[in-house]
Design goal:
This protein is of the alpha/beta class. It has one domain: Alpha-Beta Barrel (TIM Barrel), CATH 3.20.20.140. The protein contains 7 helices and 9 strands. Strands 3-5-6-7-8-9 form a 6-stranded parallel sheet. A 3-stranded parallel sheet has the order 1-2-4, with helices on one face. Strand 6, helix 3 and strand 7 form a beta-alpha-beta unit. Bound molecules: fe (ii) ion. Fe (ii) ion (FE2) binds next to loops.
Length: 219
């Protein structure tokens, strides 16, 4: 399985707070059958000096866990007004791919958000992955969700969505309707947000997981 979204790098965001926790998270992922990991620390443009500065911090954190070969670097980029014009934003794509993980603000939907995503993908020929799409059910209307689903994007689902009735129903619909869906744990630690690929394997068929992994191949 492929981990698309995880805060496993130590001391870079609100995820793993030290090397030991990161190493245990890595071990858990391995036990659960995850072979490839995209490490996706939060990137908030307004908090960082620059993209390059963030990348230096990310590289240091990756070296702290002995640079495992199955961990690829990425980021969870928060959509902020004007972010598509930020210098080097395209460098935050998943390492070795044309995919970039983007997170909508947890606020009322506004059309500039979609414009920023559109501009990033158009300018840099990247395909956006919309992080934990099911979470926005609480912030956006049905119509707005429909609108977002029309975007030329991949929709990332957190494994935990399957333990919430409303979110599960939404995700099952996405899968039934053939939307491109990939899974992730969005794990931050070893306690309340730990790697949970065992949950996904209980809730969906191996076919569906396989299908989601095939999506990466094209990018
Ligand atoms: Fe996240």
């Amino acid at each position: 399985m492929i981990e698309s979204h995880i805060h496993i790098l130590p001391q870079i965001d609100d995820g793993s707070s030290n090397v030991e926790i990161s190493m245990k998270m890595l071990e858990m992922l391995k036990m659960q059958g995850v072979e490839k990991i995209y490490a996706t620390p939060h990137f908030y443009a307004h908090r960082e000096k620059s993209v390059l500065d963030f990348m230096t911090k990310r590289e240091k954190a990756y070296k702290k866990i002995s640079s495992p070969k199955n961990v690829y670097l990425g980021a969870e980029v928060a959509i902020e007004y004007g972010i598509s014009e930020l210098l080097h934003i395209e460098k935050l794509a998943y390492q070795g791919t044309d995919l970039i993980l983007l997170e909508f603000p947890y606020a009322k939907y506004s059309s500039w958000m979609e414009c920023e995503i559109y501009n990033i993908s158009l300018e840099y020929h990247l395909t956006p992955i919309i992080a934990h799409i099911h979470r926005y059910l609480d912030f956006f209307s049905k119509e707005q969700m429909k609108h977002i689903l029309k975007m030329n994007a991949i929709f990332q689902v957190n494994n935990e969505a399957f333990s919430n009735f409303r979110q599960k129903r939404f995700v099952k619909n996405l899968l039934n309707e053939g939307y491109p869906v990939i899974f992730g744990s969005d794990s931050h630690n070893l306690t309340n947000r730990k790697p949970n690929w065992n949950l996904l394997q209980k809730k969906v068929s191996a076919d569906i997981i396989q299908k989601s992994e095939n999506i990466y191949v094209a990018y």
